[in-house]
Every structure is written in structure tokens, then in C-alpha cells.
Design goal:
The protein is an alpha+beta fold. The protein folds into three domains: 99 residues, Alpha-Beta Plaits, CATH 3.30.70; 96 residues; 134 residues, 3-Layer(aba) Sandwich (Rossmann fold), CATH 3.40.50. The chain is 34% helix and 32% strand. The strands form four sheets. Strands 5, 6, 7, 8, 9 and 10 form a six-stranded mixed sheet that branches. A hairpin with an 8-residue loop joins strand 2 and strand 3. The protein is flat and about 70 Å long. The relative contact order is 0.12.
Length: 347
């Protein structure tokens, strides 16, 4: 009886092994388009496709790669679309002259398009960053109190998918800054964010002068320490608050670019991983099958050997192994190396 069950499961796996994940990364929602007459529905849809395409590549590509393909024509864009839907039509409110579209792009076609144009993309959906902005003005070090950037960072809306968390006020960090005022650029970000040893972190030193601002970013992204210096000129901003908002948006851009650069996926060079799944729990294989489809980095998987005790699976994935391990953990799957063999455990 158990052998019959295993055979049935194997058939399911072979049928579904080629099913790619359907992650949010290639879905673009809430695209606003002017509500024209029904005769112009095609114009509306085409405009929604163009806007969705631009939003997608702006979100997942480095700026230099975005520039390469931002002017793709409508015919090229249409080939990348899987489906679309009208999310909202407000007929009651005549003042609302916009329709919201949701557009889903086909993962395989997008991969082929990127492959043809020699482009790498990044998956930074739901990426979190622990950030502390130190405000220096008129030679005063505004740490928590009267620190505009600390008070308003998450109030400045950005179109990116990074979630910022600012640390709560604590005496230890105040002391660290006060003791290191003459060597702030040498502060070890890992020591400043001791309780966040595995997180992405940014210590932003923002020194605002009369007509400009000097910004120094000390970051640890995906475990790699990266520093970045910016100088922003005060130009068309009529008051300090407008300039401060500009500073926040520019820092957001820089951090996003850094995170993208450390999470690039090359569709030209997939990797393979042989894993062993112990069948010590009921429905282990079905759980594996269900969860693995939700992981965007996994391109495919193949069953190589199956018996009553374990199954050997070859996984074809994109990106770095550390990223894959983190994605698996998000779906309650542990991937560990045991005696030279990768082992996968369903939690």
C-alpha cells in the first residue's frame, strides 16, 4: 500500500515539477489609466501595459540596465504579458476619471527578454533594512531629539519595496555617537546595530549645510559592508523641509541600488543543487511540492530517486545559495549540509 502511495506521489511530482513559481515579483498592481470611453478600451489597455512594464523594470533592474530597455515598443511589451484585469472602476464618482489595472508578466518570457539583452535582475520584494539617520546641522549632532530624518523617514512615500525600521531611542547608541564624534566615519555598523547581526543595516550620516548636504552611508547588505558618499545641492527646494524630503528620497534610491546589486539574478547561469528529503513525516513530498512552487528563485526541480525512506531531488535555481536558503526558510523549509550531502527538512 505504501509503495502505491509513493508511486502516486511520484506521478504528481513529475507532472508538477516543471510548474514554475508564481511570485509577486512579476505582478504589477494598481496601474492608473485615464478612464476613456469604451471605444478606446484598447488604448487604455496598451497604456496600462506600458506603465506596468516601466514600473516592473524600474523596480527590479539596476539603473544602468533600466536605461537599456526602458524604451521597448508596445509589441515587445505585449509579448511579455500573461494577463491583466481591471481592478477598479468607480462609476459612481464621476470626478474619478481613472481606472486601476493589474498586470501580470510571464516569468519565462521576461527571462528570455533579459537573456537576449544581457540583463540581470533583482528580487527585493519585502526586503527589510534597519536604518539610523544621524542629522548634523550647525555643528549640532541631532541623534533622536529634533532629528527630522529620524522622525519622518517612513512618512516620505517611495515607490520601492524596501521596508525601513528605525531603532528605538537608547542610551547606548547615544553614548557611542557622542564618544565618536571625531571619527564617525570609522564607526563599525555591526557594533552600532548589535541586536541585528543578520539584518541589512544602514548608518546614514547626514550633514546639512546652507545650500548642500553631504551624506555618508555605512551599510551592511547581505553580509557585505559597503560605504557610499553623496553630495546633494539645494536647488529648486523653497524651504528646508522640501530639501530634507529630497535627501530621504535620494538615500532611498542609493540603498535600493545597493541592495539590488547584492541580489542580482543571472538567468544565463542557473545553478543546480542535489538534495535529500527524508520521508519521516506524512505528506513530506506533497508539502515540498506545494511550498517549492511559491519560491521565485527555483526554476525547476527533478526527482532522481525515490524509495520508502527518502527522495533525491535535483533543484535548478537562480541567484546565490544564501538567498535560496533564506527563501526556503521563509517557507518553513530548512536546507543544511550534513556529511557532504544537502538535506532538506520540512518544518
Amino acid at each position: 500500500m505504501k509503495n502505491i502511495i509513493l508511486i502516486c506521489i511520484l506521478i504528481i511530482l513529475f507532472k508538477t515539477g516543471n510548474v514554475l513559481s508564481n511570485s509577486n515579483i512579476f505582478n504589477v498592481n494598481n496601474i492608473e489609466v485615464e478612464n476613456l470611453t469604451s471605444k478606446n478600451k484598447e488604448i487604455q489597455v496598451n497604456l496600462a501595459f506600458k506603465k506596468a512594464y516601466d514600473k516592473l523594470i524600474n523596480r527590479i533592474l539596476l539603473k544602468k540596465d533600466y536605461q537599456k530597455i526602458k524604451d521597448a515598443n508596445l509589441a515587445q511589451i505585449k509579448k511579455l504579458v500573461s494577463y491583466y484585469q481591471v481592478a477598479k472602476t468607480d462609476k459612481e464618482n464621476k470626478k474619478n476619471k481613472e481606472i486601476l489595472f493589474n498586470v501580470s508578466f510571464n516569468r519565462e518570457r521576461v527571462h528570455q527578454f533579459f537573456y537576449k539583452n544581457n540583463i540581470l535582475y533583482s528580487d527585493i520584494i519585502n526586503t527589510e533594512v534597519i536604518l539610523f539617520p544621524l542629522f548634523i546641522k550647525d555643528k549640532k549632532y541631532l541623534i533622536f531629539t529634533q532629528n527630522y530624518f529620524y522622525d519622518n523617514w517612513n512618512n516620505i512615500k517611495s515607490d520601492y519595496l524596501i521596508q525601513y525600521t528605525l531603532p528605538v531611542e537608547n542610551i547606548e547608541n547615544i553614548q557611542k555617537i557622542n564618544l565618536n564624534k571625531n571619527k564617525l566615519y570609522d564607526i563599525d555598523v555591526s557594533n552600532f546595530f548589535i541586536e541585528h547581526e543578520k539584518d541589512n543595516i544602514t548608518f546614514a550620516i547626514i550633514e546639512v549645510q546652507k545650500n548642500s548636504s553631504k551624506i555618508f552611508l555605512k551599510t551592511r547588505i547581505q553580509g557585505k559592508k559597503i560605504n557610499k558618499t553623496l553630495v546633494l545641492e539645494k536647488k529648486n527646494e523653497t524651504n528646508n523641509e522640501e530639501f530634507y524630503k529630497k535627501i530621504i528620497l535620494n538615500i532611498n534610491d542609493q540603498i535600493t541600488e545597493l541592495i539590488k546589486s547584492q541580489n542580482l539574478i543571472d538567468v544565463r547561469t542557473p545553478s543546480f543543487l542535489n538534495v535529500k528529503i527524508n520521508l519521516n513525516k506524512k505528506n513530506s513530498l506533497l508539502e515540498f511540492d506545494n511550498r517549492i512552487k511559491k519560491i521565485e528563485l527555483i526554476d525547476n526541480f527533478y526527482v532522481q530517486e525515490l524509495n520508502k525512506n527518502y527522495v533525491l531531488v535535483k533543484i535548478r535555481y537562480l541567484g546565490k545559495i544564501d538567498k535560496l536558503i533564506n527563501k526556503l526558510e521563509d517557507h518553513q523549509i530548512n536546507l543544511t549540509m550534513t556529511e557532504g550531502q544537502w538535506q532538506l527538512d520540512i518544518i
